[in-house]
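Q: Could you fold this chain for me?
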Amino acid sequence: MKKILSIALFFIVQTFLAQNNNEILVLSAVVKDKVIPNAQVIFQKNGETSLTRMTNSAGKVMIPEEFRNTNDLTIIIKKEGYSTLVSKCPCGGLTYAISPFMTELDGMRIVLSWGQRPLDIDSHLSYQGGYVCYYQMDAVNAKLDVDDTDSFGPETITISKKLQGKKYVYAVHNFSDKDNPNNANLANISRAKVYVYIGNTLIKTYTPQAGKVGTVWIPFIIDENGNLVDINDYRDASSWEGVRSILREYRPSEQQTVVSAGDVATAKQINKRGEEQYHAGNYETAIGYYQDAIELNPTEGLFYSNLGLVFQKSGREAEALWANRKAIALANGAMANTVKAGSYYNIARIYEAKNHFQEALENYKLAKQHKQNPVYDKAISRVQQRL
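A: Sure. Below is the predicted structure, expressed as structure tokens.
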């Protein structure tokens, strides 16, 4: 059962936060209240030189005075063994939870953080064969690592291995206001953010849309093919059972992402810079450019294909799987079959290298379905002999 924060403790927390709204706290995303000392925190603002500070033994760092009270601040948090976190601010008084590297090819970590209010926000994950939330923290290949009930988070769900062909629906529930339907606190005042990690990489950040009403926010689903699909839907529920009912019956409506002509053109230019950096062997720089291009135009399959290739070259196989799957989902036009065949082949190669021969065989066959190539035939024969 959820813990109820006493009124006295609530006011102690309020006072503490008021005195520390120029600090940020860095925690582990998977160990309750574990602080992260000696993490590098980089503060960036347009037109100004970035500054770097280190978290102290309590996991805290002061925001430099010239970077306070601004809406165009970006922070980058780095720590060896943890995925780099990038977040846009204002960020004073907030907690940031960083994710240890994941080794599972088909794993994913979802980290929720928020501000001072509402006190209690929960993560929920529903899929055929399992359900994860504070009430039931373990399910098949998924668990709630951290539950938080007194502001800031994190709440962390780790999927150790996504079940093939299953849809996953993720939601955030405003537990504090569960009995007050049609309120906008989750969207307007929570400062909530959902960070999605695959392998060593933060691949997506979700923020609620201001003005939306509802105690349940569904930022995304993971479809049957393993793709993240942006949703941003809002509902109401007064209990964890109510959230479960919504998620288990959830059917997303068809949504079409609209990208302006200016963003399309700019994204192409950024992607070209990524290609230049890739060919120069500067893989990390190339990854950044490709991610920036996708941020501007998430409908272009070529950007994901490029990102998948550089991830693979960098030894980041889990991220490469995700990017190639997204390239397949977005492939269209005259080159669609070529893109799909190449992406399935790259996915299969990753599985084969990890001795996951059944998954490798399935993807080699999918590559052949989309385009005939003797290389695919040889790969199918080779893997069949290993099974």
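A (continued): Confidence is low (pLDDT under 50) at residues 3-19.
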